[in-house]
Amino acid sequence: MHLPIQRSFLLLLTIVTLLAAGLACNLPMRNPSDVTATPIPVSEAAVGELSTQVASAAATAASGGPIVLEFTEEQLTSAAVLELQSAGEMGVRDVQVYLRDGVIRITGTVNQSGFDLPLSIALLVTVDAQGLPHSQVMEAKVGPLSLPQTIVDQFTSGFDQLLAARFTQEAGAVAIESITIADGKMTIVAYQR
């Protein structure tokens, strides 16, 4: 595994999953090949909507009310693409984030040594008894090859630590109650501890 693919893989997963920080998923994974070929549009307006929703949820949490967030594929795809562009990451393009059947599926194209290879990642995020999120990579492939388990394990371990720290920093005394991922939407319900 070459370093550029590993770095691109880790950067993409970190960006997409941190956008959904604090998410939990307890739904079983069905056939992930249900992802459609219709491209998800990318727009700055979708990222603006995402920011507005998060700010509104923070205000609701501060007042003690239940927190309900609903993210769309367009919002998460747009945020991932625009973040990759601002980071100057040119090795990954055509990123799409699908929210189907309880799984976050990320697809794209990775350029390695002048060759374009398809990228496919299936991510399951669960919540523990304390309401904190944990990630599990169900599938990670570049081209026809699965990424080595050592890279996946390294990412999962480091990512869980980063996700827990970020969630605690941003959400404070908020615990995740549930998350539903289906039909292009991710709905998160959380409450004040």
Beta-strand fraction estimate: 25-35%
List the strand order in the largest sheet. Answer: 2-3-4-5-6
Number of structural domains: 1
Distance between the termini: 43 Å
Radius of gyration: 16 Å
Helix count, per DSSP? 4
Oligomer designation = single chain
- Share of helical residues: 25-40%
| Cα shape | globular
Q: SSE order, as H and E?
A: HHEHEEEEEHEE
In terms of per-residue confidence, which ranges show pLDDT below 50 for 5 or more consecutive residues? 1-5, 18-34
> Structural class of the secondary structure composition?
alpha+beta
Q: How many β-strand runs?
A: 8
Kindly describe this structure:
The chain is an alpha+beta fold. 38% of the residues lie in helices and 35% in strands. The protein is built from four helices and eight strands. The strands form two sheets. Strands 2-3-4-5-6 form a five-stranded antiparallel sheet. α1 (3-19) packs across α3 (73-86), α1 (3-19) packs parallel to α4 and α2 crosses α3.
Tags for this model:
193 residues; alpha+beta; 5-stranded antiparallel β-sheet; 3-stranded antiparallel β-sheet; disordered N terminus
